[in-house]
Specification:
Layout lengths: L20 H8 L3 E5 L2 E4 L1 H20 L3 E2 L5 E3 H7 L2 H4 L4 E4 L5 E4 L4 H11 L8 E10 L14 E11 L2 H21 L5 E4 L9 E8 L5 E6 L5 E3 L22 E4 L6 H7 L8 E8 L10 E6 L6 H7 L3 E3 L2 H6 L13 E2 L2 E2 L2 E4 L8 E7 L2 E6 L1 H7 L5 E4 L9 E3 L5 E19 L3 H4 L2 E3 L5 E3 L1 E8 H12 L16 E5 L5 H11 L2 H5 L4 E4 L5 H11 L3 E5 L1 H4 L3 E6 L5 E5 L3 H9 L1
Length: about 575
Amino acid sequence: MRWTKTLIPTLKEVPQEAEAKSHRLMLRAGLIRKLASGTYNYLPLGLRALNKAIAIVREEMDRAGALEVLLPAIHPVELWKESGRCDILGDDMIHFKDRHGRENVLGPTHEEVITDLVRREVRSYKQLPLTLYQIQTKFRDEMRPRSGVIRSREFIMKDAYSFHATAESLDETYEIMRRTYERIFKRCGLEFYVVQADPGAMGGNLSQEFVLFSDAGEDWMVQVGDSDRVVSVEMARRKLKGLSLPQEGAAGKRRPMPTPGHSSVESVSKYLKKKPSDLLKTMIYEALDPTAPYRPPFAVLVRGDHEVSNFKVREKVPGAYMASPEVIQYVGSRFGFSGPLGLHDKNDPIPFYIDEDVLLMKDFITGANEKDLHFADVNLMDILNYAPDRKIVVGDFRQALPGDKGVLENGEETELHFRTAIELGHIFKLGCRYSEPFKAQFLDKGGKLTSMVMGCYGIGINRILAAAVEQYADEKGIVWPQAISPFRLLVLVLDPGDARSLEIARSIEDSEELARRGIDILVDDRDETPGVKFNDADLIGIPFRVVIGPKALRSGKVEIKIRKTSETLLVDIPQVVSEIVKQLG
């Protein structure tokens, strides 16, 4: 490929909109261009790298015995209501009505669609296990898209789903997929960790993330002590102080405080000239379990500057998720203004799960369960006295933070080390989370209708590129791993007007030996200064470079440069192809 025949619009200046290193360099190297917030065009270099990552993923999924399908991006909302996730994903899901007034969503993921497909096609245990996967665009209405393609509203995902007759069969496929993911990321040249993680809105009882530590990451990971154990902040265990609910104490001088138009912790604390730690957050939850009897809504209470750990909440109440505005109103509150005083399920007070740190708070601010209103100078005894027979559980219900002490499995205290990470992939044991509400059943060996056991496995394809840039780029630009580099070899012709230089470049470009080994080549034949060409070569980061210049040609040689180490070799012209093969391995 000739540079003059493709589109590689490199930039000298750093785009103001880009904060993450990968975002800056992918824009400057001409890989991507922004269309709108969270959506990007992929230019030729970017698409070549993306397609190479896709090819690796596809090869390894096929090798693992998965079957490729392609599912619709437009989903009827009824499927999401059938699973109960329509409210769980909330505003992250993009809804629209077609010309017939039917409500649809743009698929943020495909558990519902694939389960609907399989329940229609699979009838017998003889058809199981079955693993299906696709590589397709997903859509999520991110509130704050950031870091370029790391957190975007439209992205390419490889998502796979497995269906089984038994939990043991799921265990086998889950382990196959774990090893498959390790091979994929190793082939892409990435250094990664496998961490235990919260299943989140996906549901299920076990999941693991494949992460890459990076300053551009937005997921906090925690290394427990000096061990190799890495977990998400949702799952990191804090060493509690052992505090108990007070049996008596002073109530506060509770007083109403109008907060017109202010509902978030940040907004309310600024408006009232308080610190976020002076506020109490009351998060209302409901629990989804199609097989269980009715369970009342409940509230989780944490300090205003802390975040609830949904994983820890679900440990206490399986199937728990954030309540819908309708449920929040049902328990006597208003969305954005929830507080602990007055919440009820019919005539009964709802249960409270209180994080231990709340027991140390005094004269704090809470929502008043009315629009534009909070209470100030509330104390714990106000809450305890309001409904003395309320069920209350005190424990660890928040995400871990720097400064927290951790706890080992034997109960010993340890340090917690925090690092930011990019999530590359996530695998889940879903169990019957989707098969039961969808009635995805099969006839077992005894002729009994049984719910299928499921797993799911996702990889963010776009993030593979960004992660590689984050991990290996230097002060000059991108340093691509060979396997996903847009081209493996760059030939720089310093004087495109020199016939001898062009002849040598053409002989490399047309080499059958290089073609047979799959070595794709970009020839920089532009009429630019050597300085511009060298800078662009460093910026776009192709692993190996052949420099054809007048000075070396006078000695019958060309220069080979390795981008990663900056090592250079002078090679006799007749040996250039064999040396390229040797260097590229």
